[in-house]
C-alpha cells in the first residue's frame, strides 16, 4: 500500500499551514492554520473492509514540567512518548482520499466533537490532556489537530501519518476512545499499512 500526504515530503518539515502552532519571534508560538493535509492512498489489498487513519508524534517529553518554560530546555535524552494528533476509524473501504481541510480548518478552542466526522469516526487526540489545565482551551479534542511541539525542546519532532487497511468494517469504538484503544482494537486485523513521516520544530535554534 502507498500513501501520499499532500505537501509533506518524507523526512522534510511539515508545512506551517498544517500546524496547530507556528513560530512567533515575540512570544515563541501563535496558533496556526491547523488544516489537515490531503491524504491519498492506493495499492489496497483484497479483503479490505475499512481503514484507520492516524498521525502521531513519538518525540513528546514523558515529563511535561519544563515544557515551554522560560529559561529552561527539554533535554534530548529525556524519555519520549507517543502523542496522537489524528485518529479516524471505520473509514469506508471505498475511500482513497481525504481532502485538505476536510477534518480540520483552524484551531477550535475546546476541541471538535467526537464520533462520526466528515470521514469515518473521530477518536480523541492528546490535546485533550495537554490543554486540560488551560481554562480558555480545555475540552475534548477529536479528529485532527496538527503539530505544536515545545518551543524549548532540544530535538526536532517527527510526525508519522499512517493509513491501515483492516479486515473488519468497524472497530466498534465509541465515545472518547484514544490512540491506545485504536491500536488495541485493530491488532490482528491489519492487512497492510503505509506511512509518511514529516518533521517540525518551534525551537528557533533548530529551524
UniProtKB/TrEMBL annotation:
Q: Which InterPro entries match?
A: PEBP, PEBP-like_sf, YbhB_YbcL/LppC-like
In terms of PANTHER family, this protein maps to:
PEBP (PHOSPHATIDYLETHANOLAMINE-BINDING PROTEIN) FAMILY PROTEIN (PTHR30289:SF1), UNCHARACTERIZED PROTEIN YBCL-RELATED (PTHR30289)
Q: What is the protein named?
A: Putative kinase inhibitor protein
